[in-house]
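queue> pop job 88
queue> type: inverse folding (structure -> sequence)
queue> payload:
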């Protein structure tokens, strides 16, 4: 084999391997993942009162990281409001975590009534989202937690009603 071609082939192989690993890491966010240890964090609500995630223990918890400047985030919220209404009596609880300051969130909530808790995470919420699987630091980012407090799904980007139902339906039958 020509000695000039071998380094080119090696470089192409390395780039292809790196691209494949990146793609796998990127697309795994849209799949169901294996349960991980229980969550334990606290963030302030709009009244600056700390809210611990443990208060929703025993429920199916959908934690949505969002921002008022994010069009896909705002697109999801009306569907999340409907799902919260439809499934609250079956043990489903949405929690929104804004990754920005309180004022824009308060302004947004004057225009749309969200029927689930909204916490203010600021920049610290970005690190929390990364710890929970947000490998590309994107919003919206959502995790679904089972009744045992384990993450069973994480979603990079927009989460549809259909995907929510696909993930929670099996959990609704677990007692």
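queue> result:
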């Amino acid at each position: 084999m020509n000695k000039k071609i071998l380094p080119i082939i090696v470089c192409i192989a390395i780039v292809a391997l790196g691209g494949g690993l990146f793609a796998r890491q990127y697309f795994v966010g849209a799949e169901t993942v294996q349960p991980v240890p229980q969550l334990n964090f606290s963030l302030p609500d709009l009244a600056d009162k700390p809210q611990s995630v443990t208060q929703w223990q025993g429920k199916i918890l959908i934690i949505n990281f969002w921002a008022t400047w994010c069009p896909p985030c705002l697109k999801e919220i009306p569907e999340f409001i409907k799902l919260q209404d439809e499934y609250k009596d079956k043990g489903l609880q949405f929690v929104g975590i804004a990754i920005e300051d309180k004022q824009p969130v308060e302004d947004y909530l004057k225009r749309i009534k969200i029927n689930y808790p909204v916490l203010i995470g600021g920049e610290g919420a970005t690190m929390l989202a990364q710890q929970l699987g947000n490998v590309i630091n994107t919003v919206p980012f959502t995790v679904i937690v089972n009744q045992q407090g384990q993450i069973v799904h994480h979603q990079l980007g927009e989460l549809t009603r259909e995907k929510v139902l696909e993930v929670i339906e099996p959990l609704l039958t677990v007692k």
